[in-house]
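I am writing to request your help with a piece of structural work I have in hand. The matter concerns a single protein, recorded as an amino acid sequence and a row of backbone structure tokens. Could you please explain, in whatever detail you think fit, how the structure tokens follow from the sequence? Thank you for your consideration; the sequence and its tokens are set out here:
>
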Amino acid sequence: MDNKEFSKSLQRKPILGIETSCDETGVALLRWEPAAPGGGLLAHTLYSQIKLHADYGGVVPELASRDHVRKLLPLIREALAEAGLTVQDLGGVAYTAGPGLVGALLVGASAGRALAWALGVPAIGVHHMEGHLLAPLLEDDPPEPPFVALLVSGGHSMLVEVEAIGQYTILGDTLDDAAGEAFDKTAKMMGLPYPGGPTLARLAEQGRAGAFRFSRPMTDRPGLDFSFSGLKTQVLLAWQQSDQADQTRADIARGFEEAIVDTLIIKCRRALQACGASRLVIAGGVGANRRLRGELAAAAAKDGFRVYFPRLDFCTDNGAMIALAGAIRLASGQHQDASVEVHPRWDLQTLPAA
């Protein structure tokens, strides 16, 4: 079967997407429709391990892996039931192959590859960050390459030039803490409950503007890299030297959030100008931050560029983005052999074009 016939066959059958890179088990079913990628989403289910890891103040890799083992197959059955399908209806399987926690990745990769082998359908290992990058394509008005993408989450703060799907150039990356990681660690320093990032963002809404102002790291020099460890230290010192009252905590949270958001926007503007681009895609968990969304929308209106966000459900890890990225690559004729391989570290720039 040539690639054109292969693509047509995939348009008739849904793709199963499996996400198990960290502490969320995501499953989705998507029927590939090149004219409207997001329109083919048939079902998606998600289980979060937040309660499991709360007592430890962070993700415990071995516990994450074991919980994926317990939850993955029930979620696949749930998604199939939601879509009114059986496994025999599947045209292919996509699973996250990296980057992420090696044990967690192996759970999804092993299950996905075994299911594909048993059904005699193709399987594809998907780059987790490519899934995030393509998540806005699940919306009704998807962006078309070329564009600049800001991938911002607990593990990544990265600016990427996207010339086409699979043609990526990293413009800037984090040198230490990612933005989401800085949110979580700062929240923990101030005694906020796990998961700290969303809690800190909600608290910041109660803070007073201008009560605390922190630096905008690495914006006083050329370049597109990020560094948030120094900002985290500034906040710690401000908190230790304060009266630690509830309002003070909210004021510090707002000052910290404003510093993160301003830094991200400054770097996004620089990246758009450097690439001569007029479209900006925001992806990853921090893309759900309300202040970031509002400030970026205002910047876009002022500067004349378009900004694209995935819906809130698809900012955090999910199976839908993996199903979409996998469907695109399967439709181009790419697939894995019968081996099970995962990549805890995986350079986005090494991916082949689709």
Summary: The chain has a mean pLDDT of 93. The two ends are 18 Å apart (CA to CA). The chain has two domains: 3-135+315-350, 143-309.
